[in-house]
Write a structure and sequence with these properties.
Cyclic Phosphodiesterase, Chain: A, four-stranded antiparallel β-sheet, 25% helix
Amino acid sequence: MRLFVALVPPPEATAELDAVLAPLRPDWPGLRWTSQDAWHVTLTFLGEVNASLLEPLAVRLARAAGRHPPQDAAIGGAGAFPSAAKARVLWAAVIGDRKALTALAWSAAAAARRAGAPPDEVRPYRPHLTIGRCRQPADLRPLVSELHGFAGRGWTAGQMQLIRSHPGPRPFYETIASWPLGAPRPGGR
């Protein structure tokens, strides 16, 4: 099963972004826009994971979540990977304590490695929501510029989620488990 670990913003926060994107979508028919209910902040992408590793993975991720406090964040601005001029992915930035978000992401990745489900890829962490994808590289500089000034309401991420990705013509995500951030661990260790 394809898995990733993420923070999921509340609908109130994503609705603001969705409302800003609604009038822009018709002008960008080449983008495959992701739906609001699929928006998340990936902490680490695990890729294919054997079901036999779910229990040790859950134990390790619960420990990792307990070591980090809830994270204050907001959605604001936009960018593209690998660049706005030759974009394959359009994203909205997640603004917050970058150091704390990065530490949480690295902790989730380390937990997965210890459980035998190492992350599929390792790259510098940039908290974001993927809001669109291009089949071919596209110049999204005007769209990124249009979204540059967007600043959404703040929200607090209080839990880390293990999510299963179901690819296909209509991909969807299923939360398998979640753990509160900053929760005391049994035994205090």
